[in-house]
Amino acid sequence: MPRIEIVRGDITRVRADAIVNAANRRMRGGGGVDGAIHSAGGPSILEDCIRRFPNGLDVGDAGFTTAGALPAQHVIHTVGPNFTAGQRNRALLESCYRRSLAVADELRVRTVAFPLISAGVYGWPKADAVAAAIDTISSAITRVDQVQLVAFDDDLAAMMNDHLRLATPLRILQGIREVHRRGYSAVRFVPYLYAIGTWRIEISTSDNVEDQGAAPSVGTGPALRYSSASGCEFAGAIVTGATPVGAVADLILAELPRAVRAPSTGYLRWLDDLIDACLDRRALPIAFDDEDGPDGSWMLTGGGTIPIPPAA
């Protein structure tokens, strides 16, 4: 799994072993990122494109050329789907990232800089383009150590950072809900925030969680723990926004062999409301135990509250 860094700036000035170009099918240069890379790298990139890709390149595929005058060893060219023209198969967009990383492995490079593919003139909705990029790269099997996702403005950089920070925690919460939907109503969790801003969650069973209201705490019994400082690592696996919710539920149940299967009632309804609110607001819950905290409520990061969970 490569380490992802969000970079605000001009991709033609980013120092990396390989820079990814959002090319078109003809592979003869174009506008946007494609034109900027050809312009900054010089004519040798186009000459290499003509030699290596006489018939162009298919949508979703990738290949490489020299980087010319760019501060990189190679340019990896990939052709994203044109959403505006009706090419809306998300698998093609995901393939751009996977194929680019596969080419990077062939080149034995360790650092790769990507633009946000298809989100410019090709019109792919930015929020989904960000999700496709981060989730696909996070779950890729590759020897690349670091991926830089380059944002062309502050708003896009903020959107990328938000998705990178929240993708795994939100998937874990959805996994807990799936556990309850399967009938394991005794599973409980305690979410909290360290002063340094690290979000943590402890998942256990109701007989191992004390005071399940405003100030819960997990006892010494079996528990599954996650910290946002761990990135995508959860329960010995990699969990991203692309991980099936059912697979996350399986990880949780594998670590909690004492989980009781019984009909869920009010707790599942509360859990649905909580997780829907988290997904809508791109926020995480915090079980508050500060004297100044809201009475009878949990907090949400970024503001807002939700009632404390019911006993059953």
Give me some keywords for this one.
312 residues; alpha/beta; 3-stranded antiparallel beta sheet; 7 helices; 16 strands; elongated; hydrolase; Macro_dom; Macro_dom-like; O-acetyl-ADP-ribose deacetylase
The neighbouring-strand order within the major sheet is: 1-6-5-2-4-3
**Shape designation:** elongated
The beta-strand count equals 16
Order of helices and strands: EEHHEEHEHEHEEEEEEEHHEEE
Which strand-content bin applies to the residues? 15-25%
Main pleated-sheet profile: 6 strands, mixed
Overall SS class: alpha/beta
pLDDT < 50 stretches: none
Describe the 3D structure:
This protein is an alpha/beta fold and 312 residues long. It contains seven helices and 16 strands. It has helices spanning 32-41, 43-52, 90-107, 126-138, 154-181, 245-255, 266-281, and strands at residues 3-8, 18-23, 62-66, 74-79, 111-114, 146-151, 187-193, 199-205, 209-210, 217-218, 224-227, 233-234, 237-238, 285-286, 297-300, 305-307. It has a six-stranded mixed beta sheet with strand order 1-6-5-2-4-3, sandwiched between helices. It has a three-stranded antiparallel beta sheet with strand order 7-8-11, covered by helices on one side. A three-stranded antiparallel beta sheet has the order 14-15-16, covered by helices on one side. Helix 3 crosses helix 4. The chain is elongated. The model has no long low-confidence stretch (mean pLDDT 92). Its EC number is 3.1.1.106. One of its GO terms (molecular function) is O-acetyl-ADP-ribose deacetylase activity. Residues 1-168 form the Macro domain. This is O-acetyl-ADP-ribose deacetylase.
